[in-house]
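User: For documentation purposes, I need each entry recorded in a consistent format: the amino acid sequence on its own, followed directly by the corresponding C-alpha cells. There are two entries in this batch. Please keep commentary to a minimum and don't merge the entries.

Assistant: Recorded as requested. Entry 1:
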Amino acid sequence: MLTLNTVNLVGRVGADPEMRFFESGSVKATLSLAVRRRAKDAPPDWFNIELWGKTAEIAANYIRKGDQIGVSGYLKIEIWNDSTTGTLRSKPIVNANQLHLLGSKQDRPQAEDDTNLDTF
C-alpha cells in the first residue's frame, strides 16, 4: 500500500516565529503562513507551521513578519479536549522539515558564515 503525505508551501509569514524550549533540549518554532491563491481577489489561505531543532533556531534568527519563505513537510492533525467545554477540537498543522528563505538577501541579516541558508 502506497501512502503519501507531503506539503510544499510558499508564502509570507504572518508574525515573528514563537519559540518554545523543552527540558529535553528540543526547540520548537511555530508561525503562521499566508499563501495566495491564483485568483488575485481571493483572500490568502493561512497555515500553521511547526519547525523543530536546528530548523527552528534558523527560523528564529532569520525570519520576521512579512518575509517570504518556502516550507516542505507533512500535514498532521492536532487533537485535544477543550478545557472549557470538554468538546473534542482539532486543527491542521504543517510539520516543516525543510525551510527555504526566499526574497532578497538584503532583507535578511547576514550570516556569520556563508553556508547554504536557503535550505535546512
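Entry 2:
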Amino acid sequence: MLRITDARTGELVAAAPARRGLTRVEAHPPGLDPTGLRVLLAADLLVRALELGGTPVWALLSAERQHEELRAAAAALGVRPFEDGEGAAGLGEAQVLHVVDENGAEPDGVRVAVAPVTWAAPVPPGEADQAALRLALLAHPRSAPVRIDADTLTEAGDTLGRWRGAVADWARRPSRPVPDEVRADLRGAWEGDLDAAGVLGVLRALETDPGPADGARFETYAYADRLLGLDLARDLGTPA
C-alpha cells in the first residue's frame, strides 16, 4: 500500500485508504517556475504510483493563472495531462491529495509538500533537456531543496543516455522476470513515501550487479520506468 507524508502532521497516511476507491490528486503549482514544475512532477509521480497499485485516479491542475503555459511546460517534462481543477465538482472520491510547494497553498485535506528548486543553469528551464531535468529532479527526495546547474543537467543527461543505450542492448537478450528481491526493493521505495530517489538507487545498483541476467535488467528498468516516466526504452530497435 502506498503511504505518503501528510505535510499538516508529518505523519505517513495511506494514499488510497479505500481499496479501489477513486483518489483525487490536485496539483497546486505556485507558478511557471522550477518549483512549480517540481510540484507538477511530484503530482505526476503520485498518479503513476496509485495507478500501478490499481487505484483509479482523477488528476487535476489547480492554478490561479498561466494554465496553458503550465500545461505545455508539464507536457514537455513528461507529465501526463491534468484536468482543470478550477470549480471541479467532486465525484465521490475516497481520498483527496493536494500536491503543493512547502510555502504555498494550504488547501483542506492531505497535503504532499515539495521543497523549492533553485535554478542556476545558464539556460531557462524550458530550454534545458527536459528528460535530463526530470531525472535531476527525481534524484532528490521531494522534501529536500534542489539546486539545478549546468553540471547537474549534464550528469543527468549522461546517465539517461547510458541507461537508454543499456536498455536497448539488454532487450536483445532473452527476457527474464524481474528478480523478486529487486521488485520488492522497488515497491518498497515508491510505496514508502513515493521515494523516487530510492527507486533510482535500485536501478544504479542493478546496472553494475554481475548477478542478474541482462533480460532481467531490461524487464526491471522497463518496470521501474512505468513510475519514473524517463522513456528508458526509447532507443529499442536502434542499431547496436
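Summary note for entry 2:
The longest helix spans residues 150-170.
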